[in-house]
């Protein structure tokens, strides 16, 4: 089928490559001409494992191309995915200006009956707005455009896998033909086992927000528990492990730490609360989810203050700056929120991240960056693990021990094995777990080199 994709951010790019990978002819376009030039030259604007290879493969196969003008992208399209950004406005609602103008442009230039698919995360009711814009634009012209909601569930860092092998596909539509076309678009995925869920449009729009808000709620629940565990002398990792063994709760998204970040959860929780208010329903639970999330960074600052006394001039090494591992995305990264808080306390903050350093520098220019994890830890009063990149979980402890000024590690993601660290001579702070004093042993003098948490 002929597919057009408007917007080549994370969701848009993944839509481009995955649709091409199953055999559709895909044209991507973006208002940012620089991005189109980059993509046409095979250069990726973001880091995502496996994406560069897939992009090269699909463009070489002639199934995927990028153009500057919407008119060129949509001219022959049977299905047009709108994947433009919906950033938060100052009042917390999603800014839908880009969605409106993309819909208008598509309606203006499409030359055959087609379907506009909103894939950007949008508040319930957006499809109705899009439909009105499209109808006005089409008035008097031949051809029909249906509007469909098809929210994206992919996770950054695993986006290639998620878009090539989605577990579920959600399609909200009103017309039988629209459902039929979407079934055709997604047939290769459903034949490979993906679950297709069909609903009305408002349900699909709301379900996407509900999923993200609920996952954020689980994380905030774990973080609130961490605060309680700290006061009660309990271990949040064990508490959430117990919870997770109840199949009604499930183990996922119960990792306490620095809190959630990224471009989805923070903005979606806020937008969902605003939407509820606009619909006349107060949903303050969502505000609490966001508040507890911010509290996690504050709790980290307090822990550092506890451990180091005055923060002024203390050298603090932050390992991991991206909002989660396997991405260079630093948007709403708790690691950078912590960096900013520590800089405001006049600490000397140095960071390292395997992929996100350039983005981190743009976001927090005062942040000093190191060439690798060991260089970051050189002379540090405390090392903080902010993002659990696999390579940061397997550092050589002897090297680390000789780099730091004082052997204090703050595992702000509860991702390390405190006993191994303690045995290697480190004092260990965590989130919602008892502090562990250094207890060097004979064995550790030889060098225990793997830091990963065991079990739990
Ligand atoms: C999320 C949703 O998972 C995805 O379905 C949606 O399409 C977009 O938003 P993403 O933002 O890529 O995906 O990241 P995710 O893996 O969900 O993690 C979000 C944040 O929560 C990260 O900062 C992560 O570190 C944090 N997190 C996750 C926790 O703090 N604890 C957990 O238990 C899980």
* Estimated helix fraction: 40-55%
Ligand list: uridine-5'-diphosphate-xylopyranose
Strand residues, percent: 5-15%
* Low-confidence region ranges: 443-450
Main sheet strand line-up: 3-2-1-4-5-6
Structural class: alpha/beta
- How many DSSP H or I helices? 19
Distance between the termini: 47 Å
Number of strands: 14
Determine the oligomeric state from the structure: single chain
Specify the biggest β-sheet. Answer: 6 strands, parallel
User: Which shape, going by the Cα principal axes?
Assistant: elongated
Q: Averaged pLDDT, please?
A: 94
Radius of gyration: 24 Å
Short description:
This protein is α/β, with parallel strands linked by helices.
């Amino acid at each position: 089928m002929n597919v057009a994709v408007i917007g080549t951010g994370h969701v848009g790019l993944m839509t481009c490559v995955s649709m091409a990978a199953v055999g559709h002819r895909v044209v991507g376009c973006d208002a940012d001409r620089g991005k189109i030039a980059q993509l046409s030259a095979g250069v990726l604007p973001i880091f995502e494992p496996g994406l560069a290879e897939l992009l090269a493969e699909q463009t070489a196969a002639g199934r995927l191309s990028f153009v500057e003008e919407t008119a060129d992208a949509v001219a022959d399209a049977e299905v047009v995915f709108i994947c433009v950004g919906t950033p938060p406005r100052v009042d917390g609602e999603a800014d839908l200006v880009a969605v409106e103008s993309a819909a208008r442009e598509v309606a203006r230039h499409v030359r055959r009956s087609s379907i506009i698919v909103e894939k950007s995360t949008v508040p319930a009711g957006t499809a109705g707005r899009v439909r009105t814009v499209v109808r006005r634009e089409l008035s008097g012209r031949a051809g029909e455009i249906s509007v469909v909601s098809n929210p994206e569930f992919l996770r950054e860092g695993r986006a290639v896998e998620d878009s090539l092998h989605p577990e579920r596909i959600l399609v909200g539509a009103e017309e039988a033909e629209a459902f039929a076309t979407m079934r055709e678009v997604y047939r290769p995925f459903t034949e490979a086992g993906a679950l297709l869920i069909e609903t009305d449009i408002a349900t699909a729009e709301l379900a996407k927000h509900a999923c993200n808000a609920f996952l954020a709620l689980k994380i905030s629940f774990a973080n609130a528990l961490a605060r309680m565990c700290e006061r009660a002398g309990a271990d949040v990792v064990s508490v959430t492990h117990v919870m997770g063994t109840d199949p009604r709760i499930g183990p996922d998204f119960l990792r306490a730490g620095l809190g959630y970040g990224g471009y989805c959860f923070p903005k979606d929780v806020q937008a969902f609360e605003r939407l509820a208010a606009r619909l006349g329903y107060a949903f303050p639970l969502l505000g609490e989810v966001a508040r507890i999330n911010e509290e996690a960074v504050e709790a980290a600052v307090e822990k550092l203050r506890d451990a180091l006394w005055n923060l002024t001039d203390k050298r603090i090494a932050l390992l991991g700056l991206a909002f989660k591992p396997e991405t260079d995305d630093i948007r709403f990264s708790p690691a950078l929120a912590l960096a900013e808080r520590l800089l405001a306390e006049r600490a000397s903050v140095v960071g390292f991240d395997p992929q996100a350093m350039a983005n981190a520098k743009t976001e927090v220019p005062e942040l000093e960056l190191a060439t690798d994890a060991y260089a970051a830890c050189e002379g540090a009063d405390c090392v903080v693990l902010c993002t659990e990149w696999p390579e940061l979980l397997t550092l050589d402890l002897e090297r680390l021990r000789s780099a730091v000024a004082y052997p204090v590690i703050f595992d702000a993601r509860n991702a390390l094995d405190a006993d191994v660290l303690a045995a290697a001579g480190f004092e260990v702070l965590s989130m919602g777990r008892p502090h562990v004093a250094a207890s060097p042993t004979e064995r550790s003098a030889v060098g225990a080199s793997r830091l990963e948490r065991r079990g739990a």
